[in-house]
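**Sequence with structure:**
===
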Amino acid sequence: MRYILASMSPRRSELLSSMGLEFEICPADIDENIGVNNPEKLVTMLALLKASFVASKYTDQEVVVIAADTVVAIDGEILGKPSDELDAHNMLRKLSGKKHTVYTGYCCARADNGNMVSRCAKADVYFREISDKEIEDYIKTGEPMDKAGAYGIQGIGRQFVLRTKGEFSCVMGLPVEALGKLLKEEFSFEGGE
């Protein structure tokens, strides 16, 4: 069986590698503006759309496509990737001193037989109070610009986190424990523990 990650994210590649899975990369080129305001439904649908898009390129092959999408939600608002530095600043200001929830939708699609399963994992993240100077300094590093909620928990952004509740890798963009369980139950994966 071949595995394909439908993402160019280095974090997702690292997480998938940590599962002992050998895989290729084929990013999904889809429109992510699908007009869904529920974070769990949004990420689950986007993961499914990404997996479907890539799987359609391999319909006659024994391939399992793995796709994911992540957003941050706070006070009923969904925070994706910031559009610019001001947007990143505003996001981090909203997260300062509060709890937010990270939703990561993940989908596995078998290209040759159409078997497709999409699920969502979530984790709560508690931020300490952050000063405007800390936010400005963090934005200057460039790290927040390609991450949901404008921070990377596995990088410099970790300094803002007091604690997490839920699967830590979900916050990084791919819930490896939940994904491994899905692959074993539905796709006969026998990879590393």
Summary: The chain has one domain: 2-187. The chain has six helices and seven strands.
